[in-house]
Amino acid sequence: MSRKDAITAIENYFDGGGFFEDLARRIAIPSTSQEPDKRPALYAYLHDEIGPCLKKMGYQVTIHDNPNPKGGPFLIGDRHEGDDLTTVLTYGHGDVVRGLEGEWRDGRSPWIMEKEGDRWYGRGTADNKGQHSINIAALAQVLETRGHLGFNSRILIEMSEESGSAGLREFCEANRDALAADVLIGSDGPRLKPDTPTMFMGTRGAINFELTINLREGGHHSGNWGGLLSNAGIRLANAISTIVDKKGQILVDALKPVEIPESVRAVLEKCTVDGGENAPAIDPDWGEPGLSPEEQVFGWNSFEVLAMQAGNPQKVVNAVPPRATAWCQIRFTVDRDPNTFLPALRSHLDKHGFDDVAVGQEEDGFMMHATRLLPDHPWVQWAAKAVEKTMGSAPMIVPNLGGSLPNDVFSDVIGMPTIWLPHSYSACSQHAPNEHVLEPIMREGLQMMTGLFWDMGATETPK
Question: What are the helix and strand counts (H, E) for the chain?
Fold first, then answer.
């Protein structure tokens, strides 16, 4: 039996409806980590679905409680074939965001997978049940075709990624030996273009925080006091305008990368951001002047205002608002230490006369660290050749994704190169009603990962 036989078999599995059936069963488990009453479903996904699947493939499976009481459980699957073989860690998350029942088109349920044209709708189809299901199916096909993998495989499934991966770092620190590997091969996030395979080797980081101004107790009549009292909304808007200008350019040097490395620029010149059908049009003059769209989202930092409030938007009254809040986010590359961002903002606002604007983050506020593996790394080159061998053309290679994943846990805590091959696209409506995946991308994902895992056990890998 050959590599071609394995890929043909995985194509038949997809075309015959086997993959649809397996994924639909997983989508039906409402494993949202954002709603406490769904917590039993987090365990059910591992105990009733993923665990039995991996055991049939010869994996030793253990399910662990989270060291953080706010987090969901973890599953570790381990198939050891030889002490002298390459070890590969594969990661995915089985938790999803809220289902948002009642908001999906045509009365769809988020927990019933439905096909319409080349789209499969359902919560978790893109993020991340569909993606890790592709990788598990590819591993199973290599096993069935060859009788063995030819490498050691470890699989980690977490159930809290959509809640900030609570407890993941502590769990991996405590289980470093059980998760140690030569390389991480994972799948999450979108392709750059729907019709072109993508590889990325890290992620931008993200830090969420609040800018708040609290001027006085209670509002006061805008007719009697307007023009006499400072307006919290106006003060906050002007404070933000000193941080980022009207076209999105960051004005505080300490919040920007020092530069984009030349090796990163070189690979980004070969990439194109294209979200596909229904994706928003890129604003050509937004962000840092002189950068391409690809450099903006993969090589630079961005400052975003995610939400703002002054007064009471639900019950507007004629009063000068005493309080205003902006919920903000910085997406950042590896070039800056995120622990310096909030002190830099504090210093900047003081310098510009906005000492009344507080800069704060909740004790367990959201932050993910940035990571990046440069394109000339041996594992990057090996994986790119494996993808090209299957697909007939080279993948787009991006040093780091524009979004954020807990990749630093694998690259820094456990210590390994990280390769991500996404099986979705940017207009998939993840985190929103009508989340879906595209049939062509899933079918290609199964082909691509089957070929890659076949090569992992049949060719020389980087040491």
Answer: 15, 18
The CA-based dihedral angle spanning residues 345, 347, 353, 354, taken in that order and rounded to the nearest 10 degrees: 40
**Do 109 and 152 fall within a single domain?**
yes
211 and 352 both lie in a single domain: yes
The token pair at 358 is 């507080």
Which tens digits make up the pLDDT trace of 260-276?
988 889 989 988 887 67
87-93 and 152-158 beta bridge pairing: parallel
* Cross-strand partners of 360: 210
Over the chain (463 residues), the average pLDDT of each successive run of 10 is 96 98 98 96 98 98 96 98 98 98 97 98 98 98 98 98 93 98 96 93 94 95 93 97 98 95 89 78 93 93 97 93 97 93 98 97 82 92 97 93 88 96 94 97 98 96 89
H helices of 126-215, in order, are 129-146, 168-174, 176-179
Q: Which domain holds residue 81?
A: 3-203+371-456
How far apart, in Å, are the Cα atoms of 54 and each of 75, 131, 398, 457? 10, 16, 31, 19
Which candidate, 141, 375, 349, 370, places its Cα nearest to that of 251?
Answer: 349
Q: What is the pTM of this model?
A: 0.87
For 20-44, the pLDDT digits (tens) are 999 999 999 999 999 999 999 999 9
| Cα 254 to Cα 266: distance, rounded to the nearest angstrom | 25
How many domains does the chain contain in total?
A: 2
Return the SS3 of 115: strand
Whether 339 contacts 207, CB under 8 Å: no
Q: Please, what sign has the CA dihedral across residues 66, 428, 407, 304? A: negative
Residue 385: phi, psi to the nearest 5? -65, -40
Q: Is residue 410 part of a domain?
A: yes
Whether 377 and 355 share a structural domain = no
